[in-house]
């Protein structure tokens, strides 16, 4: 159940990250239909009111998925699908919700961004060293002439 839902939720992020908002909405609507929710206001006896989203009579996994789908749907309506992102590091692939003020986030976490930037720096450095070594091998050597000095 989770694997299938994971693929479908990822499609929502892929659509949003690539500017295909209508497809993201269609996929979320399909997921909302598959995982219906029953929102309830709760305060847990403290009066600190908030909404719980449940899928009545379902397994815990179904409730979790219903909450995830509901949350993404609310996020899309509030901020748009352009704030759905897929990590820019090809080795990662995690998804994220862009909470930056100017919608400029590219990585799922600071740690992933640092790892990606360090790898890119090392690759550039290695390429520069390789290029210098290659140029040194191609450079013709010019024999130095012995200098003649006059004696006396």
UniProtKB/TrEMBL annotation:
Pfam families for the chain: ABATE, zf-CGNR
Protein name, as recorded: Zinc finger CGNR domain-containing protein
InterPro entries xrefs: ABATE, ABATE_dom_sf, Znf_CGNR
Organism superkingdom: Bacteria
Domain Zinc finger CGNR positions: 83-125
Lineage, uppermost ranks: Bacteria, Bacillati, Actinomycetota, Actinomycetes, Micromonosporales
Native source species: Catellatospora coxensis
SUPFAM superfamilies: Jann2411-like
